[in-house]
Each structure stands twice: as structure tokens, then as C-alpha cells.
Amino acid sequence: QVQLVESGGGLVQAGGSLRLSCAASGMPFSINDFSWYRQAPGNQREFVAEISRFSDANYANFVKGRFTISRDNAKNTVYLQMNSLKPEDTAVYYCWTADTWGVGTQVTVSS
């Protein structure tokens, strides 16, 4: 059974940084691709970033140059480093792989 547990969210001022983590279990981590999505109140869930099994990364245009996705296969963990945060980045951030969603972690950016 695939399980994803996100952590690292919180309250930060605009311009600040956070690093989200997604700890995965129940699947062969190193051969899976992973994605981060987010959902703000009243909005649909939207793609943020993805990383392939080869560590190739892709980003939504609105986070390019600010967010960095990475993975540590030894720790079965995917990260999302978020810099220069904006109030519009406020959302619940979800990790996704193998048709499985994590429970999400709340990120709130104050102006």
C-alpha cells in the first residue's frame, strides 16, 4: 500500500522560504516519478512541479525560478524548496505518485 506523508508547511511572511518534504512508502521509490500539486480555497488542484526517476524536473510557470523539486532515494523522500514566497502561494500542498495522494500540508504566506 502506497503511503505519502507531507510535512514542512507553515506560516511565513512574503519573501520567505519553506521546504516541504514528502516521505513515501509501500512502493519502489527510486523508479517512481513524483509530483507536487497545490489547492487554494475555492480553486481546483493545480500542478506545481514534478521530478522523474532520473531527477529530471519540470515546473509550472508560476513557480519557475522560485521553487526547486528534488529527491533523496536513500531516504525515500521528495522535497520542494520554496523561495520568494508570495501570498498567492497560500494553499494546501500535496504529493502525488502511483495514483496516490498524500494528505497535504498547509502553506500560508502573509503579506
Features:
mainly beta; 0% helix; seven-stranded mixed β-sheet; globular; 111 residues; 11 strands; four-stranded antiparallel β-sheet
The radius of gyration computed from the alpha-carbon positions, rounded to a whole number of angstroms, is 13 Å
**Main sheet characteristics:** 7 strands, mixed
* Unreliable stretches: none
Return the structural class.
Answer: mainly beta
The succession of helices and strands, N to C, reads EEEEEEEEEEE
Query: Gap between N and C termini, in Å?
Result: 40 Å
Mean pLDDT: 97
Considering DSSP H and I runs of 4 or more, what fraction of the residues is helical?
under 10%
Number of strands: 11
Shape: globular
Number of helices: 0
Name the beta content range: over 45%
Fold and architecture overview:
The protein has about 110 residues and is an all-beta fold. Helix content is about 0%, strand content about 55%. It contains no helices and 11 strands. It has strands at about 5, 10-15, 20-25, 35-40, 45-50, 55-60, 65-70, 75-80, 90-95, 100, 105-110. Strands 2, 4, 5, 6, 9, 10 and 11 form a 7-stranded mixed β-sheet that branches. A 4-stranded antiparallel β-sheet has the order 1-3-8-7, with no helix packed on it. The N and C termini lie far apart (about 40 Å). The relative contact order is 0.33.
Secondary structure: elements and pairs:
Blueprint: E1 3-7, E2 10-13, E3 18-25, E4 34-39, E5 46-51, E6 57-59, E7 67-72, E8 77-82, E9 91-97, E10 100-101, E11 105-110
Parallel strand pairs: 2-11
Antiparallel strand pairs: 1-3, 3-8, 4-5, 4-9, 5-6, 7-8, 9-10, 9-11
